[in-house]
Amino acid sequence: MPRPSLFRPTQRHPSLWSRPEERYPTYWVETLGSLPPTHGERWSAARGRTVRHFDPYRSKLAAAIARGWEGDLPAVGEHWLYLGAASGTTASFVADLVGPTGRVYAVERSLRPFGRLISAAERWPNLLPILADARRPREYVDWVPPVAGIYLDISQPDQVEILRENARFFLQDRGRALVALKASSIERGVPPAQHARRAAEALAVEFRVGAPLSLAPFHRAHYFLDLNRSPASSDSGPSARRSTRGSGSPGPRPR
Amino acid sequence: MAVALLLRAGPRLLIRDPGALGWEVLPWESGPSEEDPLPAGAIRILGRLSATTEIEVGSESLRRAVERLGRRARLAGSETIRRARATIPVPTDARERRFLIDLARARLEEALRDPDEVLIALAREEERVERALGRERNAALEFGRGGDPNVAAYAGRWARFRDLFEQHHRELSAELERAAQRVLPNLTQVVGFRAAARLLAQAGSRAALGRMRSARLQLLGSKRRPSPERGPKYGILYRGERMEDVPPARRGAYARSLAALAVIAARADVHTGRPVAPELKRRRDRRVESLRRGTRA
Ligand SMILES: C[S@@+](CC[C@H](N)C(=O)[O-])C[C@H]1O[C@@H](n2cnc3c(N)ncnc32)[C@H](O)[C@@H]1O
Q1: What is the Å distance from ligand 1's center to B90 Cα?
Q2: Which of A230, A229, A200, A228 is nearest to A214 (CA)?
Q3: Does the pLDDT at position A234 exceed 60?
């Protein structure tokens, strides 16, 4: 177990800690949930705090941070809708980030991971499991309020359309979305990077979209997209504001 | 024209009565279920509404609850719902959490009692295991088979573990086959149990499978995007019964025919339960023969 004094607070989020290692820092998140951890990740407890390793190989959000993404993390007190929560690995970290006053509504449709998601929800006071198909938001409109952010990680060919439809029902006017895009084998002859760019362009109608960030080597053919709903676009399509943010370089990247 | 809006928010009901100011927030505790009857307060408010007031609701289950009281209701649009909910703060409290966790349990239990859902879960599980096993086999092929005794001993142990994994996959497949024969007897005979189960999983539900048209079913599960020129010719049906008996250049044509037969079989399974498979299998096999001989059937 690492020595606790080595953990350093980060500026971007009060629950996110970093620990310098040989080549790159590792990231750790102070946990709200009770131990044991959700998926056997490393953890460390000291001075009343318990942090869990935010492993870039296990979580695409952690991979985005490791790859130098500098956008806004889910913030304390926010409500998030998490689509494709599986057994709750990343969803539990998002729950840690939004803290006890925030909420994560976690949608998953496969029965097996869902059973484990329920157990995670029992241990995280702000993680709420919903058994449903993300293609049919009408089926959970009774349970999910408007949210500050949507996190989408479902590796389906129609992932962009799924995000749009959910945004129509749930995303607040200035809401944002974080998307782990699977860009492999959607269309023959189109390289993943180009596929990711096309998805970003398709979303630029209603969102300000940052450049897609490759998640290699942690997740092959996966890209991370950081989207902001432009305030104008929800009423008046044509006058939607142009991208002002995130269109340049996605920040420094290790390797 | 006056419109009343009813939205459910977990253990609460939100009502905007056009005759009153603002929103009513009523506790709605009978759940957790989607078919809960409306709370008494809501029934009173609905009773006060004039006959010309239209009623909009957030979800299908809420519509059913209103219609059980003899009033007609229609679904509100997504934008209406989003805007309305943004104007009324609803507490997110321990009550909401308990409600949603209990609902999640109830839904999971209900799904596990439903043979269709169990078949879908088995189909996804089998696909995952099959993929993992494929990776194992490839890795084993690439592993050096040199003369070194340590390497050989290691490879031997690894092979034994792989055998156990193969065994697990066989058992899982056998269970999948039994479940598919029970739930989709016709489709299973026409396209094979693995393809039948995956088609159901991809369609999402028995009702969706029963509505599926042949062109859509042919491409179901294809990872590529349809396109007029170089679009995919098959998805799940690539693993369909007798595909390997068809010359590679004719497999697209076979997938098209198989999809047409599969639609008939699936509709029979979903709607009538009539045994149409024997006839469909005859047509399928005739089609295979003609594609093999290179004649048009
Ligand atoms: C890559 S995994 C998600 C991993 C998870 N986000 C994490 O990092 O911990 C994708 C999940 O999406 C789920 N999924 C796929 N299609 C879905 C749909 N239409 N609705 C809901 N969940 C879906 C799958 O069952 C699977 O569990």
Answers
A1: 28
A2: A200
A3: no
Candidates A87, A144, A154: which one to mutate for ligand 1, based on the most atoms within 8 Å of Cβ?
A: A154
Please say whether the dihedral angle defined by the alpha carbons of residues A185, A190, A191 and A194, taken in this order, is positive or negative: negative
A170 close to B (CB below 8 A): yes
Under-70 pLDDT residues of chain B: 1, 30-34, 144-146, 224-231, 295-297
The predicted structure's pLDDT at residue B91: 77
Does domain A66-233 bear CATH number 3.40.30.10? Answer: no
Kindly provide the ipTM of the predicted complex, given to two decimals. Answer: 0.84
Question: Is the domain A8-58 a CATH 3.30.200 member?
Answer: yes
Domain assignment present for B102: no
Judge whether A155 and A147 are in contact, CB under 8 Å.
Answer: no
3-state secondary structure of A183: coil
Task: Assess B108–A contact: CB distance below 8 Å, yes or no.
Answer: yes
Which letter does DSSP use for residue A33 in this model?
A: S
Same domain assignment for residues B81 and B166 = no
Indicate if B174 and B261 belong to the same structural domain.
no
Both tokens of B38, joined, read 């409306």
Alpha helices in A20-141 (DSSP H): 60-66, 89-98, 111-123
CB contact under 8 A, A115 and B111: no
CA distance B151 to B162: 16
Residue/partner pairs of B66-72 with CB below 8 Å, 24 or more apart: B66/B6, B66/B38, B68/B37, B69/B38, B69/B43, B71/B46
pTM attached to this predicted model: 0.84
Q: Are B220 and B288 members of one domain?
A: yes
Number of domains in chain B: 3
Least confident of A2-6, A105-109, A217-221, B188-192: A2-6
pLDDT of res. B29: 75
Partner A contacted by B10 (CB < 8 A): yes
Do B193 and B295 lie in one domain? The reply is: yes
Q: Which domain holds residue B165?
A: 114-182
Q: Quick one: what percent of chain A has pLDDT higher than 90?
A: 62
pLDDT at res. A113:
93
* Among A155, A172, A148, A173, residue whose Cα is nearest residue A75: A148
Query: Would you call the peptide bond into A36 cis, given omega within 30 degrees of 0 as the criterion?
Result: yes
* Cβ-based neighbours of A164, under 8 Å, separated by 6 or more: A203, A206
Q: Token digits for B101? A: 């966790």
Are B235 and B221 in contact by the 8 Å Cβ rule? The answer is yes
Q: Mean pLDDT throughout A124-131?
A: 96
